[in-house]
Amino acid sequence: MEQLDKLEAHFKRLSHFQHLAAICGWDQATMMPDGGNHARADAMAELALYCHQQMTQPELGDWFADVDEKSRHLSATQKASVAEMKRQWQQASVLPDTLVKAKSLAGAKCEHAWRQQRQDNDWDGFAKNLKEVVALAREEAHIRADQKLCAPYDALLDLYEPGMTAERIDEVFGALKQWLPETIQAVVDKQAQQPVITPKGPFPQAQQKALGEHVMKQLGFSFEYGRLDISTHPFCGGVPTDVRITTRYDEQDFTSALMGVIHETGHARYEQGLPQDLAGLPVGQARSMGVHESQSLFFEMQLARSAPFATLICQQAKQAFNRQDDPAFQVENLHRVLTEVSPGYIRVDADEVTYPAHIMLRYDIERDLISGKMEVDHIPERWDTAMQQYLGLSTAGNYKNGCMQDIHWTDGSFGYFPTYTLGALYAAQLMQAMRQQLDVDGIIASGNLSPIFDWLSQHIWQRASTTSTDNLLKDATGETLNPAHFREYIQGRYL
Amino acid sequence: MEQLDKLEAHFKRLSHFQHLAAICGWDQATMMPDGGNHARADAMAELALYCHQQMTQPELGDWFADVDEKSRHLSATQKASVAEMKRQWQQASVLPDTLVKAKSLAGAKCEHAWRQQRQDNDWDGFAKNLKEVVALAREEAHIRADQKLCAPYDALLDLYEPGMTAERIDEVFGALKQWLPETIQAVVDKQAQQPVITPKGPFPQAQQKALGEHVMKQLGFSFEYGRLDISTHPFCGGVPTDVRITTRYDEQDFTSALMGVIHETGHARYEQGLPQDLAGLPVGQARSMGVHESQSLFFEMQLARSAPFATLICQQAKQAFNRQDDPAFQVENLHRVLTEVSPGYIRVDADEVTYPAHIMLRYDIERDLISGKMEVDHIPERWDTAMQQYLGLSTAGNYKNGCMQDIHWTDGSFGYFPTYTLGALYAAQLMQAMRQQLDVDGIIASGNLSPIFDWLSQHIWQRASTTSTDNLLKDATGETLNPAHFREYIQGRYL
Known about the structure:
The structure is a homodimer of 495-residue chains. With 495 residues, chain A is mainly alpha-helical. Chain A has 20 helices and three strands. The first copy, chain A, has helices spanning 2-30, 37-55, 59-69, 76-93, 97-120, 123-148, 152-160, 166-192, 205-218, 254-272, 289-303, 307-321, 331-338, 355-371, 379-391, 418-437, 440-446, 450-459, 469-477, 484-494; strands at 226-230, 236-239, 242-247. In chain A, strand 2 (236-239) and strand 3 (242-247) form a beta hairpin. Chains A, B: The active site is at residue 264.
């Protein structure tokens, strides 16, 4: 079909420019000297503008209309391809340029000031900028909601986790809230009875890197199609044929970089495992932020913190750091180190048991901010209440380790936070289904994990965006999202 | 003036895309894993096509016409700005798309096959492809010549060294030919009387890198605005606020990487020293390939192989490799190592005395190939004759170390070779003029070389493309290109 060909050629062409943006973005975070930033930012902004123009070209509307008319002749994959192109096109073109610009300015201003304000614990200064950002996010949510005929917050969710709704999250997180705080307390009490020997540094960076690369290979990361580097904030970037993951090294604690590398390797394998025949098309991209996070958490939590994997890591870490006789490196102790649970203020430092608490409190706040049920001024109080309720910690007056700790809201990325915990729930559900078909622990213990990756490849990676998250889960596990698996998993591993 | 503003905005916008191409090109040569090449090549080709389209947009012609009409109102810098934009625009738009495509295909085919053919010493196979490339280069030269109203080969020269002509090069190289072969012989004879102790490896890569970075700092390279990395073929890339130079390390010979780094640092300082107020405009770019090479050779030859610099390097190399008592690292010996002259087959391995011989023979051949005075089949014979005449070496039957050694002709870059030797001549002339104003040896000996760089900045770097190469030389040295300074320099240093 001629118009479908035109659409796909257009998006493939666009993907070449997105490729360049991905590599230059990676470079900016890993390689670029400080002085290069100003000109680079200008170049990246020019490219972003060009990509936006390409994404919103007027003729696309006609092509979509034409394809829609003849959609009965399309195969299932073609239909999915059209739907994904259309989703990106609508998302890009629905906002008026004035709003896009205002958002970008307010976000940049808020984020820039936040870097200092956080250090200064300056809530009043931050709140002033955040109010602007929230006002614009509300405007954005309403415009997107009108287009999608849904609730405003759901329209923002759709940017990160298509098909997800606040109603569904309320239900799922509601179930979590029933048992999580109590479970956290029970795990903490149980672990207080178990002595843990913390491995003592220094762990030289070169040895940590070698260990990380060794584990990446064991996890099937292809260095023919990717690299590992260093950045302040770890991420997975690049393109499917050239995936760039990063970490940062703490010479006193090798587990932090190692688990980070394993996490990013999960993201990376999803990207490296996307179907080549759909390369360059939206339908060939990863399904969603939540599904992406499910893969990184599958690697980091489901696999790497399991007892049999701790045995593998233990051997490798002993060799890497020459600690054959160090009691901290005995397998049982190391597994305890990797599964230590400790309620804390900071989300990015949280273990997998307390992590959902951080997310739920953010979700409750941002949902009500967008709906207009609450205002920026009430964030600190609500934060403090939820932290006390979930984790027994107060953040009263402690803004920098409370509601000012994350970058996400500064530029208006509302709807993003829930995907972290959705990913954790998906991962637990996938592992539960996998265990019914595979002897997962035996496979891990064997050191050859391919059957696990083949399963993920078949059920997740190779399907890209050819179907919805609900369908992916249903086809892979026999049901749509069911948070009971996460409870079973957490309580099984930790209690 | 409205149309001038439009033109400058257009070229500045284009420079943002060229920025991304430079960084992704650097990445391709230094960081990219092999598997990433296919998608990267597609992305880079898409970007090149887009840049070409932007460079040849039809409305540019109208804007230039309008600006030309009102040119009497322009300042000198504005006039230069218009001239440089126009030069790039004309160069990009004069060739018909069919020729551009045919050139690109024939060049890619010839270069790709050459990589294997060179190893196989397969002249016949190579000649077949090269004939296609030469035929298209002749076509290109004629079209460009018609536009510029000049001789075909001069039109190609203009791509690399604007304003230069074959007539002038014939004259300059003619003078060189008078004395160079004899001088080479005399230097070789003289050096045969001087014992040289070759420093013995291993010289670990990390120590070589540290030494290179130390010397780069001494030469004023700003790591705030640039980096040093590794690639198979050393180059200077990136953008003026983020200059990326590369080298390769031979653990048996530290001088090769060190001199390479110093060479690229010369290129880098030119880029880092370009005027910021003209950034993004053609007039703000380096003047030409020849002037660029003059800076790298000024650093590598004029500075770094001088006796006082050898003293500096000697101290630093002793420390870097812990060779305080190694006789090879005594200053007189090290200076001899750095100034060894030895006729050889390979251009890229040549010293500064024999290097022009390699260039002159290539120039003679390519000039006659383009004018139609000779054909591809006669290249090997003519190569052999010239090698015997200039360097006393025969390349009969030895194609791979003869006329098949370079990549330049494979994709049709005729007109490029002469700029290497023009650069060497410019460098000698600049140094001669500098010595009349500065105590260059004393400055080098002091270790603080800033006065030298200030002089280059004032006379070369800061002037960018605001005037012609002739004028640059005249303003800096009191005369246009005068090859006598190179003779004086070579004979003074080596005889």
